[in-house]
Input
Amino acid sequence: MPYAPDFARLLTAGTRFTDECGEHVLEVHPAGEVVLPTGRVVGCDPLTGAENDPYTASVDPGRYPARAWVSSIRAEGGGTDRRVAALELVIRDEPVARWEMALVAGQDPAELGADDFFGYGVDAGTGTLADPVALAALEDWEYDRIEDVFLAEDPDAERGPVPGLVSAVTDETTGANVLTVWSGWGDGCYGTWVGRAADGRIASFVTDFMVLPAKG
Output
C-alpha cells in the first residue's frame, strides 16, 4: 500500500512519542486564514520559484482557517525544540470519514509502490497550502522583498508557537495570501492528503512533514 500518515495520532493534541531526538508532544495552534479566490489549492515550497500545479480536489472560493500541528521536543540534555509536524487547511470543521492522497492532474496512485506517495519538493525549508493566484503574484516579487517578508528572522529562531509562521497578502485585488511554516526537519519531499466528511465533501487538506514516525 502507498504511504499514509497515522492521522489519529498526527491530528491529536497530546500525542506523545520518543525518537533519537527526545520526547515529542504534539500541540495544535491556530495559524491564521488562507484566502482562496479560485477555490483551488497548491501545496508547495513557495520560496523556491518552482511551478506547482493545483490539486484536482477543489473547494468553494473563500477564507479558510489554518492549523499547525507542532511537535514540542524535550531532549535528554534538557534542551527543547519545536518542529511543525503538519499544516492543516480546514474547509469545514467536521469529522473526517476517509482520507485520500491529494493529487495533481496526471498522477495515479495505482502507480505507487509500497510506502510511496506523491509530494512536493522543499528546498527552502518552508511549506504552504495556497491558491494559485497567490503564488503567481508572489513570482512577481523581487527577491529582496521575499527575503524581508518571509526570511527576515534568524533561521534558528521561532516565531511564536508555530515555527516559521508568516502570512502575507500577495495579490491585493483578491486578498489572496501565502501562509508559510517551517517544514518539519527541513528540506525533503512532503505529501498532502484530503480529508472527506461522511457526505463526501472536503473537510480539510493536511500536509504531513514526516515528524511523526510511520505506522508499524
